[in-house]
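re the bet — no i am not wrong, look at it urself. input seq straight from the record:
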Amino acid sequence: MKKIQSIAPTLPPAAKPRALAKKPVAKVTEDMNGTGGEDRYRAPALDKGLDILELLAQQPQGLTRAEIVKEMERSASEIYRMLERLVARQYVTRSVAGDRYALSLKLFALANMHPPLNRLINQALPVMDAFARQAEQSCHLGVYDRGNVLITSQINSPRGWSFSLHRGARVGLMDTASGHVLLAFSDVANTSRMRAEHTAVDGEVPITEAKLQATLASIRELGFLERDSQQSFGVVDISFPILGPDQQALAALTCPYIRRIDAHKGPDLQEARESLSKAARTLSLTQGLAG
C-alpha cells in the first residue's frame, strides 16, 4: 500500500425497550448558585414525552397505543394525552388506520438544522459528488453521535456499482473505519467521553485494547485508515478525517472501495485513496465552521 503524506497536526431493537420508561429522572446536583439542588427541576410530563419518543425510536414499524401503554407501564389516559400532543406537534405520526404510532422525520430535520453540521453537509456534498465521479466509488460522511457514528451524507457511484450506507444509519464506533478515524483524531478527553458513551451495535466486531491502540496510532501516523471491511466481504474501507481549526475530527469521510473484475477499467485503489485524501483536505481547509 502506497503511503501518502499525513494530513494529521436500522437502529437495532433493544432487548428490553421497557427499560427506557423506567429510567430515573435525571437529578440536578447543583443549582445555578452552586448549592445542592437534587430533584429541584423534575418535569414528569417532559420525561414521559421523551420516554415515548425514545421507545418509538427503537420501533421502525411503530407501536399501537396499547403496546405503548404496556411498555411504559402507565395509564392509558395519560399516554393518550401525550400521544395526541406529540402528533399535534408532528413529532409522531399516526397511521391511516389510526391504530399505530411512529416517529416522524421532525427530530431528524431539527438535528440537521444545527448550523455547524448543516454547513458541513452543504459544503461536503459537492466535494463528495466530485469524488464519486472521479473515483467511480460511493462515499459517506460520518459524525460522532451518542456513542456511535451517524451517517449524515451519502453519495453513490455514478456507475451504479458500489457499496453504500443509508443516510441516517448508525454504525459502530469501535469496529468501523469511520469510528476509528473519529477516535484517532480526537483529544484524550473527547476520546474517553466517546468510549464511555459507546454501546455495542448489532453484529459489532470486538477489539482488544492493545489492537485498538495500535490501530489508532497507525491512523494518526498515516493520517488515514485503509483496511478490509470488517462488515462486508470484497470491500476495502478508506477513511480520512475532516479536521476542524483545532485539528480535531469533525467528521470522517469514508469510501467503501469495491474493485470491479469485468472488462471495465476504472480508477484503482491507489487513485481512489488519493482522490479521497484530496476531498478530505479540501473540506478540512474550507469548512469554515468556527464561530
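see?? The longest helix spans residues 115-135. told u. also The domain at 114-286 is CATH 3.30.450.40 (Beta-Lactamase). so pay up
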